[in-house]
Hints:
Elements: E1 6-17, E2 20-31, E3 35-39, H1 46-53, E4 61-66, E5 69-70, H2 74-80, E6 81-84, H3 96-106, H4 111-124, H5 140-150, E7 158-162, H6 170-187, E8 190-195, H7 198-204, E9 207-212, E10 215-221, H8 222-230, E11 234-238, H9 244-252, E12 257-262, E13 268-273, H10 280-293, E14 300-303, H11 308-317
Parallel strand pairs: 3-8, 3-9, 6-7, 7-8
Antiparallel strand pairs: 1-2, 1-4, 4-5, 9-10, 11-13, 11-14, 12-13
Helix pairs in contact: 3-4, 8-11, 9-10
The structure holds adenosine-5'-triphosphate and magnesium ion.
Magnesium ion is lined by residues 46-47, 86, 162.
Amino acid sequence: MSMTAVALEAQGLTKRFGAHTAVHELTFTVGQGDILGLLGPNGAGKTTTIRLLTTMLSPTSGDFSVAGVRSNRPTEIRRRIGVLPESAGYPGQQTTKEYLCFHARLFGLSRPAAEQMADRLLIEVNLDQRGSSRIATLSRGMRQRLGIARALVNDPAVVFLDEPTLGLDPAGQRKVLTILRDISLRRGATIVLSTHTLTDVEEVCSRVLILDKGRVLTSGTVSEVTRAVAHRRTGHLRVPAELAVRAHQALATVDGLTIDVTGDSSDLFTITSNGAGGPAGALLNAALIAVLHADVPVLSFEVEGARLTDAFLEMTTTGA
Ligand SMILES: Nc1ncnc2c1ncn2[C@@H]1O[C@H](COP(=O)(O)OP(=O)(O)OP(=O)(O)O)[C@@H](O)[C@H]1O
Ligand SMILES: [Mg+2]
């Protein structure tokens, strides 16, 4: 848990559409300045969660607060947040600066103040060369960055972005992630983003919440979530075919390993630490040492890295 103030809190947050429960009893907190990644397969409830927290939808039951404001004061919440919705529409004929000015004025800024704000935001999202371009002429990546700028016109305490990197090429994704990191660092804002791209989360998020079928599967820091599956690390070991039996006997002496034999000559072992014999990495090392001590040369040994992707797939594909 972070020691900072709570920026976002949900308690038993539930949304039903008819008989279908899109979001079921979500309970979580996010600290000020955190970047929370909302992960989950299609239909998991990410967009519904964001729409609830941004007061676009009202919950069926449960409660939440954003930037210290309870959910029963939606207007007050909207003043303190910025939102990049899942599919935002843009007036193609407006220039990027006109668009940002317009939204800044909606929040009560005078014309000169709105223009200043627009110029500042265009720099912040790397569009300062495009201030007089019509929105219709922008690339998708540029439009996405304009949407992020728009979400910042009221200097929000919490920014919600629904799939901000969707459809962007790797360079475009990187630009957006860098901008988000800067928003968090320079403004001290809290960010909630949803994504399918696990590397987005690994690169910028301080915390992660994995949803599936409207329920929280797990939440915590990225390393906590990754560690949750790290007790089951897997290694692939290849030995000379004529020594495969001896290698197998050596592996069998190591407690806490599951051994699968594959390969044309049963010379490829997939070994998985099953969590019983201490830290996973140490167990795989012990397996390697046992084989070497049996005088079996190791032709290759490859450990599958414990990554967020593994945690995510393991949690969301079981029983699906
Ligand atoms: N307005 C609505 N009316 C009825 N059902 C809805 C509505 N909005 C969402 N749902 C349902 O709620 C569930 C969660 O949808 P949601 O859009 O929140 O998922 P998601 O995690 O954002 O998915 P994706 O990754 O595809 O964007 C889905 O089963 C969806 O069909
Ligand atoms: Mg969605």
